[in-house]
Amino acid sequence: MGTAKPGRRRRRTDGSLATEGGRERDHALALAAAALAVSPAGLVSDLDGTLAPIVPVPSEAQPARGAVAALRTLHRRLAVVAVVTGRAAHDARRILGSAGKDVLVIGNHGLEWLEPGADAAEMDDALAPVRAPITALLARVVIVPGVEVEDKGLSATIHYRRAGDQEHTRARLLETLLGVSGTDVEVREGRMSIELRPVGYGDKGTALKAVVQRFGLRGLVVAGDDVTDLDMFAAARELRSYGVRSAVLGIAGGNEVPAEVVAGVDALLPDPDAFVRLLGRLAGTIR
Question: What pLDDT is attached to residue 130?
Answer without folding.
Answer: 79
